[in-house]
C-alpha cells in the first residue's frame, strides 16, 4: 500500500498469472443460421486476439473455457450470452501497472467482430463473478443441455507464481473500513448489498490483516447513493404493505357484512343474488390468502408457501369468473329467447351450472400450471414455490393469470354492450326482480374492478411508485365497493331497519281501527 493505493514493488516484473471471468452480450446481431458452438469458437478466437492488441505483451493462454447454457446445435440468437473463463500467463518482463490497467479496461469494453463474410457484430464484455467458477462447474453440469468449449491445447507457465483475479481492485485507491463505519455493518456487506453498475465484489471485501476491510475509494460515493435509494425503497415497501393490510382489513369486514345481508333476507337470494354471494366468497378467500402472503414468514419451496400461493391463484381466478358469470346472466335475462329458455331451469340448478364453470375453470388452470411446471422441471418446481412472488415463473403469470383476466374483461364488454343494445332497442324488456338495477350495479362494479386489475398488471412490472399505492387502495377496497353497491341502498336499509327496530314498522291503534272499519264496511 502507498498513499492509499496498491502499487507494485517492482515497476517491471515477470511471471504474472491472471484470471479473467467474463460474460458476453451481442448488439446489432446479424441474422444467420450458425449454431451456438460455431459462435463460441469465434468468440474464443477474437477474445485472445483482442487481449493481444490491448496489452501488446506476449503471454501463454493456460486455460480458456466458454459455456452457453443451451444445446450446442441450437441456432444462435441476438439474446445469446456466453460465459468465459481465461487463465493467461505473462512470462516476459512487463510494466505491471500498465498491463493491469489494460486488462481491467479489456474486461469492461465492447468491440466489433466480423463473424463471417460481411456480418459484423458488436460484442460487449462485462466482468462476471459466476464465470469465475466455471472450472469447478465443469464436471457437475449437464452436458446435454449446456454447450462447453474447451481449449484446443493446454500450456502452462511456472506453477510457483500465484494467480490474480482481474478486476478494478487491482489498481484502484483504497480505504480501510472498520466496524460500523459510515453507519454500515461492513461485516455483512458481502451478502447484504449488490448494486448494478457498482464494481464492489467479493474480492473487494477481504479482511485486511483481520482488522477491517479494504474498499475502492471511488466506489464509496456510488455505494452510498444506492444505499440511500434502497433505504427509501425499503421504507416505501413497508408503507405499501401496511396500506395493503389496512385496506384488505376494511374490505374483509365489508364482505362479511354483505354476505350476512344476503343470508338474512331470502328475498335477496335470487339467481343474481346467489351469483353475488359466490362472488363475495371468492373475493373474501382471495383477499384472506393475499393477507396471509403479506404476513407470511415461510421460506421458498415450503409446503405452506405452495398451498397458500396455489389457493391465492385459484381464488382470484374464481373471482374473475364469477364476475363474468354475473355479466353473462344479465345478458341472458335481457336477451328474450335465451332469457325464456333460462327460466325453464330452477334457480338452484342454474347457479350450480355457473359454479361448476367458475370453480372448474379456475381449478383446471391451477392444476395445468402445476403439472406443466413439474414436467418441465423434472419434479423440482410446482409453479408456486416462492414467497416473494405468486408464480415461480413470469411466463406462468402471463398465461395463467393475465390471459384469463383479459378473456374475462373482453367477454364482459361483449355481454354489457349486447345487454345495453337490447335495453335501448326494446324499452319494455324484462325488468322483473330488479334486473335493471343489478345490471347497472354490475357495470359500475366491473368498470372499477376492471380498472383495478389492469393497473395491478401494469404495476407488477414496475418498481414501487405512486401507482403502487393507488393500486393498493383500489385493489384492497374491492369489498367496500361491493358493500356500497349491494347494501348501501334504500331497499336494503329499510329491510335492516325493519329487523333492528320492528316497533317502528308496527301499525298504530288508529291504523288497526281504520283497517277494521274498512273491512266491516266492505
Question: What would your notes on this structure say?
Answer:
There is one protein chain. With 522 residues, this protein is an alpha+beta fold. The protein has 2 domains: 160 residues; 274 residues, Rhopdopsin 7-helix transmembrane proteins (Up-down Bundle), CATH 1.20.1070. The chain is built from 15 helices and 11 strands. Strands 2, 3, 4, 6, 7, 8 and 9 form a 7-stranded mixed sheet that branches. The protein has a two-stranded antiparallel ribbon with strand order 1-5. Helix 5 packs parallel to helix 12, helix 6 runs parallel beside helix 9 and helix 7 packs across helix 8.
Structural class: alpha+beta
State the distance separating the first and last CA atoms. 117 Å
- Specify the CATH class of the largest domain: Mainly Alpha
Strand content: 5-15%
Assign a percent range to the helix content.
Answer: 40-55%
CATH architecture of the largest domain: Up-down Bundle
Low-confidence stretches: 190-204, 514-522
Looking at the structure, the CATH topology of the largest domain is Rhopdopsin 7-helix transmembrane proteins
Mean pLDDT over the residues? 77
Chain-wise SSE layout:
Blueprint: E1 12-13, E2 16-27, H1 36-55, E3 60-68, E4 81-90, E5 94-95, H2 96-107, E6 110-116, E7 119-127, H3 134-137, E8 147-149, E9 163-165, E10 174-177, H4 189-192, E11 213-216, H5 217-264, H6 271-295, H7 303-334, H8 336-342, H9 347-376, H10 394-425, H11 435-460, H12 466-476, H13 478-486, H14 490-500, H15 509-521
Parallel strand pairs: 2-9
Antiparallel strand pairs: 1-5, 2-4, 2-7, 3-4, 3-8, 6-7, 10-11
Helix pairs in contact: 1-2, 5-6, 5-12, 5-13, 6-7, 6-9, 7-8, 7-9, 7-10, 7-11, 10-11, 11-12
Amino acid at each position: 500500500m502507498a498513499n492509499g493505493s496498491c502499487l507494485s514493488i517492482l515497476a517491471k516484473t515477470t511471471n504474472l498469472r491472471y484470471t479473467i471471468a467474463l460474460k458476453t452480450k451481442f448488439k446489432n446481431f446479424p441474422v444467420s443460421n450458425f449454431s451456438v458452438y460455431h459462435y463460441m469458437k469465434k468468440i474464443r478466437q477474437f477474445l485472445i486476439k483482442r487481449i493481444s492488441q490491448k496489452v501488446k505483451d506476449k503471454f501463454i493462454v493456460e486455460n480458456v473455457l466458454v459455456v452457453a447454457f443451451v444445446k450446442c446445435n441450437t441456432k444462435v440468437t441476438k439474446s445469446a450470452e456466453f460465459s468465459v473463463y481465461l487463465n493467461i500467463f505473462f512470462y516476459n518482463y512487463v510494466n505491471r501497472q500498465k498491463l493491469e490497467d489494460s486488462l481491467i479496461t479489456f474486461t469492461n469494453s465492447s468491440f466489433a467482430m466480423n463473424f463471417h463474410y460481411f456480418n459484423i457484430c458488436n460484442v460487449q464484455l462485462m466482468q462476471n463473478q459466476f464465470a469465475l467458477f466455471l472450472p469447478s462447474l465443469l464436471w457437475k453440469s449437464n452436458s446435454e443441455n449446456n454447450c462447453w468449449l474447451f481449449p484446443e491445447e493446454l500450456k502452462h507457465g511456472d506453477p510457483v507464481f500465484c494467480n490474480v483475479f482481474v478486476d478494478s481492485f487491482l489498481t484502484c485507491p483504497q480505504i480501510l473500513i472498520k466496524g460500523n463505519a459510515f453507519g454500515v455493518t461492513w461485516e455483512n456487506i458481502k451478502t447484504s448489498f449488490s448494486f448494478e453498475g457498482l464494481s464492489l465484489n467479493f474480492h473487494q471485501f477481504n479482511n485486511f490483516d483481520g482488522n477491517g476491510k479494504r474498499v475502492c475509494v471511488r466506489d464509496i460515493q456510488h455505494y452510498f447513493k444506492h444505499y440511500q435509494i434502497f433505504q427509501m425503497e425499503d421504507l416505501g415497501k413497508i408503507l405499501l404493505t401496511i396500506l395493503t393490510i389496512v385496506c384488505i382489513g376494511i374490505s374483509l369486514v365489508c364482505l362479511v357484512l354483505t354476505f350476512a345481508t344476503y343470508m338474512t333476507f331470502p328475498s335477496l337470494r335470487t339467481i343474481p343474488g346467489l351469483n353475488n354471494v359466490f362472488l363475495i366468497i371468492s373475493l373474501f378467500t382471495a383477499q384472506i390468502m393475499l393477507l396471509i402472503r403479506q404476513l407470511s414468514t415461510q421460506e421458498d419451496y415450503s409446503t405452506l408457501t405452495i398451498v397458500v400461493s396455489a389457493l391465492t391463484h385459484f381464488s382470484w381466478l374464481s373471482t374473475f369468473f364469477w364476475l363474468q358469470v354475473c355479466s353473462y346472466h344479465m345478458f341472458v335475462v335481457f336477451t328474450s329467447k335465451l332469457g325464456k329458455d333460462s327460466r325453464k331451469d330452477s334457480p338452484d340448478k342454474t347457479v350450480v351450472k355457473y359454479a361448476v364453470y367458475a370453480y372448474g375453470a379456475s381449478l383446471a388452470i391451477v392444476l395445468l400450471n402445476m403439472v406443466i411446471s413439474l414436467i418441465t422441471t423434472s419434479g423440482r418446481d410446482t409453479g408456486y414455490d416462492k414467497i416473494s412472488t405468486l408464480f415461480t415463473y413470469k411466463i406462468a403469470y402471463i398465461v395463467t393469470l393475465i390471459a384469463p383476466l383479459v378473456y374475462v374483461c373482453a367477454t364482459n364488454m361483449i355481454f354489457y354492450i349486447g345487454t345495453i343494445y337490447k335495453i335501448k332497442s326494446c324499452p319494455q324488456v324484462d325488468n322483473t326482480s330488479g334486473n335493471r338495477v343489478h345490471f347497472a350495479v354490475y357495470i359500475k362494479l366491473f368498470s372499477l374492478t376492471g380498472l383495478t386489475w389492469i393497473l395491478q398488471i401494469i404495476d407488477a412490472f414496475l418498481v414501487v411508485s405512486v401507482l403502487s399505492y393507488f393500486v393498493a387502495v383500489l385493489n384492497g377496497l374491492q369489498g367496500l365497493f361491493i358493500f356500497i353497491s349491494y347494501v348501501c341502498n334504500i331497499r336494503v336499509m329499510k329491510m335492516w331497519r325493519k329487523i333492528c327496530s320492528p316497533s317502528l314498522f308496527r301499525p298504530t291503534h288508529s291504523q288497526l281501527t281504520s283497517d277494521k272499519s274498512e273491512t266491516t264496511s266492505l
